[in-house]
Fold these 4 entries.
Entry 1:
Amino acid sequence: MLYAAASSDLTLLIPTNDVAQPELTILIPTLNESLTIGPFLQWCQIGLEKAGVTGEVLIVDSSTDDTPDIALRHGARVLRTPKRGVGRAYIDAIPYIRGRYVLMGDADCTYDFREIETFVREFRAGSEFIMGSRFNGYIEPHSMPALHRYFGTPITTAILNFLYSTHFSDIHCGMRGMTKQALERIDLESQSWEYSSEMVLKSVCLRLKTVEVPVCFLKEPEGRCSHLKRNGWLEPWRAGWINLKAMFLYGSDFFLLRPGLILLVLGLLLSLPVTLGPVALGPVVLSLNWMLLGQTLAVLGLESFYLGCIVQVLYNYSPHAANRWIQLFRYNRAMLLSGAMVACGIAFCIPLCVRYVQLGLRLTKIGTSNHLAANGLLLIIFGFLTFCNTLVLHAVKLRTKPRLLTAEEGPVACKIAS
């Protein structure tokens, strides 16, 4: 006998032999997996018994075949949802997760859920995010396409490691676990394949206690065709592209904050020394042309820096980082600074304006007043950018929702468990 609980377009089906008070939830999205769902659920039961943990299996299903019926007969809960992406399946499932720990994967019997002891052990040791690694474990011959094994996964993993200063070996491994609390804090937004990168990079940004464990990756059972293959040869490339997009979007401050500071400093080094006229540095003479280059770099750098600050406040991964920028750019202080920069900039421009009028509205040669006025214009631009970005920064802070439970500040670590 089954009990169904409905909520909007979701329906939860509960088996008669339902598990009470599970410690672990095995959370699996499915789409027409009637060939493998039965053996897979048998593997889950074996894995739970070997690990000595009370667990439930929650299937998030959008199938048109008898996958949900088979799952119910094998004791799994089934959350029926419309077909709208694997990332959305995890989002839909969050209110229905009963376990303290969540283990994710695929129902195609490519990940060996008979061997979940390592995940359970790391959960009980205090890990908040556990990433499986096929490259540190075992990859059965012919189980992973060469394009994925030797190009796609290594390249995107290397990019994420570079952007976020991490040491993951396999960011696309489908077998991964996290505490329910961590899953809620991650606040998953991706609807499709990019969910995998979003989970990993947000775990880093939120400074979750992270560990990587080896897993076994097996060939698909005879007769099954993966979803990537079902959607055509272009689907792996599309999946890789949207994962890269997620890395760039959720880590956009990497491209803005420090590069902006570097451009700003470099620009000022080219502009400020020439404020009162050309400066000779050996065979190189810094003149008005060098100043214009420096000013361009400085303006680009300052705006990039401000955008990086705004992004950190908007994402609010670390309340400490967000509050740091709010404190640095306190409204009254930033407004006064903006006004002072504009006033100084105007003052620097006055000598050139006077000279211009005295010469009958003509400038015949470049002098000190030209250099001074150029940096005066730079100050006016700086004042305007500081004014505008301070407004945006505080407006973003007003509209940014606080994240659940602040993580401890400190270095991000990803240890390897054997």
Note: The two ends are 43 Å apart (CA to CA).
Entry 2:
Amino acid sequence: MGWRRSILTAGALALMTLTSTARADVAGYLAPSSAPDMIRVLPSPPAAKSAAEDEDLRAYKATRHLAGSPRWSLAQQDNRGSPEDFFKDFACSLGVTLDTASAPTLNILLLRVIKDARPFIDPAKDHYARKRPYLVIPGDICIDKSASLAKSGSYPSGHSTVSWAVGLIFAQLAPDRTTEILSRARVYSESRVVCGVHYPSDIAAGRLDGSALFSAIEADPQFRADLEKAKAEVAAARAAASSKPDAGMCKVETDAEAQQPW
């Protein structure tokens, strides 16, 4: 059974918020067996009592004071992960708020990519079984301390993996907005540290994971065909400018981009 069994155990729990709204009839672009061995690709998480682990713990402790702040609320928002959520979360960076009506191809494309993410994330999560920071040093986190969250490994960050891949996809769809889009993807992954459910090294590994995921799906002919259709959808939505992003949320995201939270 190998790692195929592992994706149904602890690691799979970490992506529940990313896949809970995924349609059962939508398959990924990739065969699960085609995923690279991310246990070999990713560096090991920081060793116990190492300087790198000390830095990770320092970041966790330094961000606990953000509870109740706008940055904390943004971290709570960034815990979501359906295509519709990504449309909202990247609206400011894209300059337009998409939805399933204006971007139906992109909606399905993202559902497929989210499904493709699992074999890129779960084997390493289960292999390292790193405890989340709030389980090492008690403190508030921005979401419920559920049993499933506690069981899932901290390394690498699944949300960071998917959000970075989504950022790379959106940058293909609106290349003139690449700076804004990838900056938002960075902030999205930093939200996992603000939330208290990941360390900086977890999100760094997640971005590498997301790059590997994007590299794999980019080689798929059906993905490339869908990407071209999605590009036309985004261009039409931007030209129509029918749904402007919320200015208040855009300011929160810009403020988050300007200052690393730890």
Note: The CA atoms of residues 48 and 128 lie 12 Å apart.
Entry 3:
Amino acid sequence: MPGAFIMKILAISDLGSWEGLKSIFDKTKPDVVALAGDLISDGFAEFRASVFEKIPKFKQERKILMKRFGVTLSKTGSYCLNGNNFSVWADALDSLEDKYEASSEFEKIRKTIHTDKFYDFLRYAGKKSSVIVVKGDHDEDFKNEYNLELINSIRKCAEISGKLLNIDGMNFLGLGFNETHYFRVLRPLVKKYQNKVDVLVTHAEQERMPILSQFSPKLIIRGHFGSGKYYVNNIPSVFTADAYYSTINIGFNGIIDIIQYAKNHDKKITILEKGSCAPWFSNKSEFEIYSWLKPYSE
């Protein structure tokens, strides 16, 4: 219902690609965009393969290797090896990729298809919405590419790691990976900002969530790992790392409406019905493992 919400937030983190997110921004029309870390790199380097495909010399040398090892490409782009020399082929391909990954050409293309698109998105979204950014651990993967001065110079954009920012009467606290990983940094921040926060935007490890609840915010937006909507010690929380994007409506009545979306291998976008933040390879659900975590019901 129009006017039923105080604020609409578009939350995104841990990005392998910025493709399509301008359209998502236009579709969702948020008041605030919350970018919860790992924006320069997400640690899995989805863009790595795309860069290699834009380097002609790499493709020429790979073609020679493939012929040598009897390797073909499937329709999906995966390698098909005829024979028992998979490990030898894999080592040869890794060496070739390492060679070109160290090249200036690789660095230039990588920046163009990923880092530059991050700043381009900030400029685009900052024309219509407030944009807040916190720093993830992998935002340090490439030296000087996560540039605080540049982020803060863009219209209506603010890097808020370790800072409190008021937007339309609501206090947003940003905590990047460095503010949450070290207890000597985190504990003074809890003491300083406890009960002063409406929305906490963070890039934090799983084990830090109970202490983050001590800020007593109305909402936690958390990148770094997992997806899904939860209560963390009774505080509504949305984990954004493994979702494509999340929309959050904060209501006048205190109700927080959270919808998450996933994108499959065919690039089809669907509602994420059930997320997960269970540790990898665990046979137990997150609710069995963490006593402080409960399912979120709206």
Note: The chain has a mean pLDDT of 93.
Entry 4:
Amino acid sequence: MPLNRVSIIIVTYKGDEVLTECLASLKTTCGDEPQIVVVDNSPSETTREIVSAYPNAAYVPSPGNPGFAGGNNRGLPFCNRDYILLLNNDTIVKSRQSIERLVEFLERHPLCGVVQGSIILPRANGAAGGCGSFLTPFGFQYARGFGIPLETPGVNVPTKCFSIIGAFMMFPRSILDKTGFLFYDAFQSYYEESDFCHRAWLAGYEVWYVPTPPIEHLCGYTAGMFARTDIMRQHLRNSFFSLKVNLGFASRLAIVSFYRFVIFVHAVAHLLRGDAKTFKADLGMLGDVFRLRKEISMARRNVRRSVSDLKIFRQVLRFPSLSYLGRAVRGNM
């Protein structure tokens, strides 16, 4: 299958080393067929020179580091193909079929609006990098496959999901006519892809994980440049914002209340352990959301809803197992 109907957006931030490998892998597997748009969140001449070596690639400077969300938004207007692939700069594509199968799935399933392929993590002995997530009644997500072998039974199978990972995510550009836009600029990074997937569901589309020849993802290359508690605060703030905007009144009353309670318990537990930084991050997130209440109210009025929460929940709401909850608690303590 020719890939000349695909635009690939790669957002980079002080990542010339990994970007060089990523672009080289695309050249090897896909030639010059896809259009590539590299958005540089820390503009430099060295990055521009790396991109200029590829005739099918465009360099877009993006001063001020608007994050993954803002970077992709800035790159989107430069894309002129039917399908948009968001690809992290710290990934390696080893087979053109990794991209081809996503296009094929979208063409065979017109109800599918967003799709993710297989990801493995070289730093975790080749474990899966996530195979989609379900929504839980607590507002948090129930991840599939992250950190376990991709060959584990029931993991690497086509699955309808609430959300997928933005590191390797494709959608037809026509979906933007229904969702209204790609990401909130204010999100910068974290949870922006989940918010987009939620809005795709509300617009009448489905979200899928589809097995492909896996790409490699270093996972956390850019995140490693920032403090863990700052990342946690930003992720929680964005997810809280998204739930309060996208859920209907009854769902919001139940799920957001659970979410707020879990954050409060998390904060108190870390305070008792003497972890003041995490405690402040949790409370700071709640303060952020309070200060954003006008923006949340405005965004809620602009949500394009053609599917009820109940219909979405029937397909992608799951209660996590006790063993999963135990791992999640241990990982956050």
Note: Residues 6-224 form a domain with the Spore Coat Polysaccharide Biosynthesis Protein SpsA; Chain A fold (CATH 3.90.550.10).
